[in-house]
Amino acid sequence: MNILANEPTLAYSNNTLKATQLVSDILKANPQMQVVQAVWEASAARSEPQSAWADPQFRYTMAPLTIGSNASSYGQRFELSQQIDWPGKLRLRGEVADHQANAQFENIAAVKLVLASTAKSLFADWYFIHQAIRINKLNQTLFDEFRKIAVTRYGAGLASKQDALRADVERNLLKHQAIVLHRKQLTILARMNTLLNRPPDAFIPPPGRLAEITTLPELQSLRTKALLSRPELKVMLATIDANKTQVELAELEYYPDFNVSAGYNSLWDNEDKRFTIGVGINLPLGQAKREAAEKHARAKMKQARWQKTELEAKIQEELQIAYARVEESLHVLKLYREQLNPLADENLNAAKADYQTGKSDFLTLISSEKNRMQTQLQTEQALADTYRRFAELEYTVGSVEAMSLEGQHRETLP
Predict the structure, then answer these.
(1) Does residue 244 register a pLDDT over 70?
(2) What percent of the chain has pLDDT over 90?
(3) CA of residue 68 relative to chain centroid, distance
């Protein structure tokens, strides 16, 4: 049996699959989550080394020509030294690393948000394809019934044999459509299993009903939430903090670092001169390179701030569009459910009755049935589109979990 590496144990039975379960399983099993987690861990591990002192240096020197002489004239020198950065430099380097790690941590939430939105969209596809297959089977059965009616009328001399042949043609077209739908079902199954890190043909149960969405939160409240929740904005905030700290660090680079040392030198005849201590500093004479580094840090901070402003505008635009698309889908779904579907049913029933009594021809009956089948499919498509577009709205708001409407101002759509 072909098993993917690190395949999670997912116990799917023959019961229906819920959207929340699919989202949860994908977030647990998808390798992308492990990748961004590892990137964050690697970034977080840089903080301590950046803020730590440099290793102390030990130096040993000897005079080789004194080897073999008596111990009192053997020449050697020991020295231990430690670099000490200007106060504040180590702290700021550690803070830069911390902010960069925070940005990587928010990337985990960004990937989680994308995967959750993709999972919800795939669940809508999984729901629709099952409904399309169900409708196809029902209509195959219905065309069998039409054929029997046509054969009965033909036997009674009330219709031509062509009516039965037309029913056979339509039923075979439905069988062809069933093959196409099955192929689409396997495609969706493979996409879902890929996200679940499973073999592409692994079993996934049929979907449960899609959640009914009849109301929407107030748009302004979603704007506020989006500007607080979107992980991309949090990444930009962490990047701005890192750049701001980098500017402070660049300002401290104008100040020297220290080096303190202690040593023992037996080369001196005078024993009082053999033990030494010292201090040294680097001379920050290259002001041009330090000014360039400071300008670079300030430019990066300015760039990040404008990128944040641009991202905020883009998020609000995406939210406006996603909200309008959900409203449109809700109206379309209501139109199909309350008007088009009942009309299609009524039209089919009338056509069936008229054909049985000889008031209309078989072509009218077939046309009515095809119209009804198409209306049924479009109703289920409208429901799937509504769920998918609401998932897009949740993504735009920055919500991994399904948005709760409880405790919020509700606007009931007409």
Answers:
(1) yes
(2) 50
(3) 73
Q: Coil, helix or strand for 60? A: strand
Structure tokens at 100: 């960069």
Phi, psi of 412 (to 5 degrees): -80, 125
State the Cα–Cα distance between residues 20 and 35, nearest whole angstrom: 23
CA distance 206 to 123: 10
Residue 149 near residue 366 (C-beta atoms within 8 A): no
Amino acid found at 411: E
pLDDT tens digits for range 75-118:
788 899 999 998 998 899 999 999 999 999 999 999 999 999 99
DSSP secondary structure string for all residues of 265-290: ETT-SSGGGTEEEEEEE-----HHHH
Nearest in space to 269 (alpha carbons), one of 65, 78, 75: 75
Domain boundaries, the chain: 19-412
- Does residue 17 contact residue 71 with C-beta atoms inside 8 Å? no
Task: Report CA Rg, the chain.
Answer: 37
Asked whether the predicted pLDDT for residue 371 surpasses 80, the reply is yes
* Tokens linked to 293: 């580094």
Tell which wins on pLDDT, 390 or 169.
390
The whole-model pTM stands at: 0.82
Q: How confident is the model at residue 413 (pLDDT cuts 50, 70, 90)?
A: very low
Architecture of the CATH domain 19-412: Up-down Bundle (1.20)
The upper half-sphere exposure of residue 348, i.e. CA atoms within 13 Å in the direction of its Cβ, equals 20
Contact at 8 Å (CB) between 129 and 188? yes
Q: How many helices (H) and strands (E) does the chain have?
A: 10, 6
Alpha carbons 133 and 185: distance in angstroms, whole number: 9
Is 90 exceeded by the pLDDT of residue 238? yes
For strands 57-62 and 215-217, give the pairing: unpaired
Of the candidates 178, 180, 201, the one whose C-alpha atom is nearest the C-alpha of residue 189 is 201
Residue 243, SS3? helix
Contact 384, 210 (CB under 8 A): yes
Q: What is the DSSP pairing of strand 275-281 with strand 76-84?
A: unpaired
In 200-230, alpha helices (H): 219-229
Is the pLDDT at 300 greater than 80? The verdict is yes
